[in-house]
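The protein record reproduced below.
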Amino acid sequence: MQHYYVSDLPQVDGYHVIHTGDCRRLPLPHSRTYLGAYPFAVNALDQARRFRTAVNGCLTCTPGCYQGVMLSKSSKIS
């Protein structure tokens, strides 16, 4: 089983991202919330959705849970 975390601060697209404990994109300890140990990333995603309105998977460590389109460098954020 993996240990999972969710980012406390949303990305520019408004989503909080779940990560495994060994992900290279894991936020610093003061910027994440521990979700628990789960056999599958989708279980951690379900747990995160209990207290975050918009949650997504990390493309690096939980790509099977990632939904949506990544913003390109040419995308404009208003």
